[in-house]
Amino acid sequence: DYKTLELRYFRNSDKTRYLYLRVDNELHSGRKIDDNLCYLPANKWDIAIAKNSSLWRVNLKQYELKENEKLIVVLSFAKSASTAVAKSVLGQKNASGSEIPVYHIHSLVHPQIPEGCNDITQISSLALRDAFLKYHSCLNWKFMTGIREPVGSMLSAYYHRFFESKGHPSKDELVTFLDFRLKAYQGFLDSAFKAQVNLDPYQTKFDKTAGFGVLVNRNLELLMYRVESLNDSFGSIFDDYLGVQNINLKRDNVANYRNIQSRGMMIDESYYLSKKDFKLPCKRLKEIYSHKSVTHFYTEQEIAQYIDHWSE
Q1: Strand 48-51 to strand 261-262: parallel, antiparallel, or no bridges (unpaired)?
Q2: Angle 171-189/150-166 helices, nearest 10 degrees?
Q3: Under 8 Å CB-to-CB from 298, ≥6 apart: which residues?
Q4: E strand or H helix at 287, and its extent?
Q5: How many Å apart are CA 72 and CA 139, to the nearest integer?
Q6: Which phi-psi region, left, alpha or beta, contains residue 180 (left: φ > 0; alpha: ψ -120 to 50)?
Q7: Nearest CA to 29 among 97, 92, 116?
Q8: CA–CA separation, 44 and 58 (whole Å)
Q9: 65 with 3: CB under 8 angstroms?
Q10: Which residues sit opposite 137 in a β-bridge?
């Protein structure tokens, strides 16, 4: 009644987590993992740990999951509090007492992994997709995805990716990045869930007052949470979805709280100024906020407030 699923991470004795990924029979990366989130290898025999300059094979038996047990996949567009959510739900138990694995990715499939790739999340996504195709009916897949208003999401993503190397951004740089990112933002739920998981987020009611919605299709479940509602509703939303109590939100990846300086300006000062000063024409904002990726999750009043805030 067990199925060997290559779906777990490994901890060595001092609880430092290492994941080595072997691509095309060559060891391309050995990256220390800074948290307990799970990353997948290219296949189950490519897991190893570094110890005394030697590679040691992992006993995969300790990472087996029983049929019908839960696993959590935080599959979310970037800068939607997904890291904070994933870390917050760690440590939950299956009925058998085993820890529920938590995977944090931004795509369930990458069409092509570049040769020599050492991006753990890309390889993990591809491996998790393979596991889903094989075992989607054997396990209780609990997906989670975050929704965040588009302009604020863009600003957060820009600072995460570019501030350290480029410093305080100009308006033109932010507009260019918004235009680049918007198509992916608007199409994310359809491409990530409707196309890959056969769950259509737009076909279920979203509680705009509470800030969440749940979609269930047999053993596949999807929790959609609105980032702006997390501080007020996190415990009630996630406790109910996971069937546990007293889960607390752990803040992470928040630009305001990072001690980063670039070209003479601290990131918190720069981020504050951009949130205050960045503006767009009202017509452009109405186009952005009229898309279903916004209207399905925010009230007309909330949308009007965002347009007013970002309008020239």
Answers
A1: unpaired
A2: 130
A3: 149, 208, 226, 289, 306
A4: helix 282-289
A5: 10
A6: alpha
A7: 116
A8: 9
A9: yes
A10: none
Task: Note the helical H segments in 167-229.
Answer: 171-189
Identify whether the C-beta of residue 159 lies closer than 8 Å to the C-beta of residue 270: yes
Q: Which amino acid is at 294?
A: V
Question: Please, which residues have CB within 8 angstroms of residue 213's CB and are 6 or more apart in sequence?
Answer: 201, 204, 205, 206, 207, 223, 224
Pairing of strands 212-217, 140-147: unpaired
If you search the block for the tokens 């359809």, which residue do you land on?
A: 190
Dihedral angle computed from the Cα positions of residues 122, 124, 126 and 128, in that order, rounded to the nearest 10 degrees: -150
CB 242, CB 89: distance < 8 Å: yes
Question: How many other β-carbons are positioned within 10 Å of the β-carbon of residue 58?
Answer: 18
**What's the CA gap between 169 and 121, in Å, rounded?**
27
Query: What tokens appear for 148 in the block?
Result: 């965040």
Q: Which is nearest to 206 in space by CA: 185, 229, 183?
A: 229
- Residue 190: both structure tokens together: 């359809």
Kindly tell me the burial class for residue 207, based on how many C-beta atoms sit within 10 Å of its own C-beta (0-12, 13-18, 19 or more): middle
Which tokens is 304 given?
Answer: 């009007």
Question: pLDDT tens digit string along 90-126?
Answer: 778 777 776 777 778 888 875 555 555 545 555 566 6
Distance CA(124)–CA(107), nearest Å, equals 9
* Tokens 């918004």 -> residue: 178
CB 63 within 8 A of CB 7: yes
11-30 tens-digit pLDDT = 333 333 333 333 333 333 44
Instruction: Give, in degrees to the nearest 5, the angle at Cα 292 between 287 and 294.
Output: 75
E strand or H helix at 214: strand 212-217
Which of 21-30, 97-106, 205-214, 277-286 is least confident? 21-30
- Compute the distance between CA of residue 226 and CA of residue 133 in angstroms, rounded to an integer: 28
Give me the residue label for tokens 């987590």.
Answer: 17
